[in-house]
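W.,

You were right to be curious about this one. When I first looked at the sequence I had no strong expectations either way, so I just let the prediction run and decided to look at it fresh. Below is the sequence, 229 residues in total, followed by the output.
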Amino acid sequence: MSVFNTKKQSQAQARDLKHRVLTCLHKLSDRDTHSAAASELESIARSLSTDTLPPFLSSISATDSSDKSPVRRQCLRLISVLSEHHGNSLSPYLSKLLTAIVRRLRDPDSSVRSACVSASLSLSSHVTAPSFASITKPFLESLFREQDSNTQTGAALCLVSLIEGSQNPDSGSLKRLLPRFEKLAKCESFKAKAALLTLMGSVVELNGVLSSSGKNLIKNLVMCFVEFV
């Protein structure tokens, strides 16, 4: 088979896959067809090849607020499925996946926001080739910059999941962030204090964080936790 014919065949397969995925996404909005569509999408996700990963990712990343919450939630669930079955093959698409998660942090549906946290855990657990810093960066940016309380909460809880799932969380860089977390907790405009304290607790529990910290940092942390108890 010529290179030209092979390319045409690949393009046709990509179109067929995209059509199949979009059909399933549409069916997710209907209660009667949701379960079957979700199962089919997860089956597709598990069986993707290197060539079919990009069009699939493009399809599930294209959802927005106009889509119904079952669609938005299932697309995040698919990120978890992809992570579990394809692992580091997803590394080239990490930015797209993280963007898809971060975009949904402000979702009005709490089940969608919970799916963000689950997807973050799966990514951190199974996509291990990228640096810890590259995975946490967009969530830290959202935590420090966003004013929306749902986004603040989601970013903090996703960071907790990233720490929990990572085989090698960067305890040094996380420890250096503790003073910024403390300052954020005391900021009146920051609303997600409970989630932030959970994040700070996760950092403190990492090996070596407290043992290598100065007395002032430990004292400030204790006072910060006591203040919000």
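Here's what jumped out at me. The two ends are 69 Å apart (CA to CA). And, maybe more interesting for your project: Residues 56-228 form a domain with the Leucine-rich Repeat Variant fold (CATH 1.25.10.10).

Coffee later to discuss?

I.
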